[in-house]
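Internal ticket #5521
Category: modeling
Description: The requester needs a full-assembly model to guide mutagenesis choices. All entity lines are attached below as received. Residue total reported by intake: 351.
Assigned to: D.W.
Attached entities:
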Amino acid sequence: MIKRNSPTARAIAPALVVGLLAFLLTVDLNTQNSASKINATRRSELAAIVAERQKSTAALESRLAQLRAQVAAIAASAGSATLRNLQGTMAGIEAASGSTAVSGPGIVVRLADAASTDQSVNQQDSRIQDVDLQEVVNALWDAGAEAVAINGQRLVSTSAIRNAGSAVLVNFRVLTSPYLVDAIGDPSAMRASFEASTIARHFKTWEQVYGLGFSIEQPSTVQVPAYTGSVRFRYAQIQNAR
Amino acid sequence: MLVVLSLLVGIGLGVGLHPVVPPSWAPYLPMAVMAALDSVFGGLRARFEGTFNDRVFVISFLSNAILAALLVWAGTRLGVQEMEIAVVVVFGVRIFQNLAAIRRILFHA
């Protein structure tokens, strides 16, 4: 047994400690290395999954459009008077529910994130948030809009506008700045009413303070595409069907 | 001689066995390494200044490393954000001071 104060112990103990340091250092290097590797592989895996899902969604959507066109063609070829009558009613209902593309006079509200990423400004303040879009859309409905779409996503009765990270989701689609809110309705009346709304006045201030993009355009025709998502209700049932 | 041998054995073990710390421990190991590095440079400095004491060296090495890791662990438990910064600043400054002292002795500059 080696005594605590023996010359051997005095030589060995510090050496062991230095060896321990070398060991700890290499273990730490290993650990940091593998950790960054795991993160990188995980990220690329997730990205691949997202890309794949987006592709399959696009494929399903084009199939849905095909089938809908088929249904329309079959319905059109069957030519009884009652059927045509019903089709007229259906066209009106479809336009109102958002399942057909519509166009007409209207306005386009353009919202954009601040161009400069000034570090002194809160990141949330320099970005368009879900609530901004919600309030703009509400103001447009209030101003008499008949059909509204954000970046080509038609708003229907089940549409949600919400944040997902730094992007905004509408109808479960990721949208990014700039956001174009198309609204069909009486252009001059809608524009006047919208410009007088609280959110429009806020945006005029925010444009100055945070550099957010905000403009209202009035093209001759506004195109609002059809809602492309599922419209089948699984739980809600029609009451007192007459 | 013995020190260099031990150093090489330590590196050899770390590279050869390729041990990895579990992810939940991963934040605390770098803290212990910082403290350990400081102790070793402190020991080297003391050696050059002629005040080296093996007991102080061994005890300060172990206690600094363990305390640094424990402190960060306790800090995260208590909700102190970024406790690592305290360890990094304190031991970082000390490592620089030790290195500066060693440089002064070795190069007289």
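Resolution: model delivered.
Comment from assignee: Residues 83-107 of chain B form the longest helix (25 residues).
Ticket closed.
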